[in-house]
Amino acid sequence: MTKLPLGLSAAVLVFGWVLAALPVHAAEAAAGSDVFKSECAECHSIREGRNKKGPSLFGIVGRKAATLPDYSYSDALRGRNDWVWTPEKLRSYLSQPARQADPGTKMKYDGLTDAKDLDDLISYLGTLH
Ligand code: HEC
């Protein structure tokens, strides 16, 4: 076996790791886009500034709750001024009926119980910026 110089072996290792890691994320986000289309697109657009029944989800990950100036939120969600849509917050919010996660909300959604669909969806939401 030929011995590679240390720097080169490290580069090969890192490159291999990047190659291995990238398609997984891309695949998750692609699957998440399908989950979005079947579960959320009826009420939500991913285009900036485009509200449907629900507010635009452009840039949702990291956004504070109820902060789009051109969308008329319920008093319930407007009152959640300590909520930030982190991946963890989205996970707990979307895994149960919205009326239970946020009593008084006008989002009529029964929750996504499939853990993989939820992971994929949240990866996808993270790409919307
Ligand atoms: C039947 C329509 C409907 C469906 C389906 C729906 N939503 Fe909503 N969503 C709403 C409405 C209406 C609001 C505004 C809630 C309020 O003001 O109380 C909302 C609010 C939200 C918010 C808060 C946004 C903000 O600006 O604070 C997030 C996040 C969200 N929805 C994510 C989702 C995701 C992800 C899905 C799919 C898994 C989904 N929703 C499915 C109608 C829907």
From TrEMBL:
All residue ranges annotated as the Cytochrome c domain in the record: 27-129
Molecular functions (GO terms): electron transfer activity; heme binding; metal ion binding
Pfam family, one: Cytochrom_C
Superkingdom of the source species: Bacteria
Signal peptide: 1-26
Keywords of this entry: Electron transport, Heme, Iron, Metal-binding, Signal, Transport
PANTHER family: CYTOCHROME C (PTHR11961)
Protein name: Cytochrome c family protein
InterPro entries, per the entry: Cyt_c-like_dom (IPR009056), Cyt_c-like_dom_sf (IPR036909), Cyt_c_1A/1B (IPR002327)
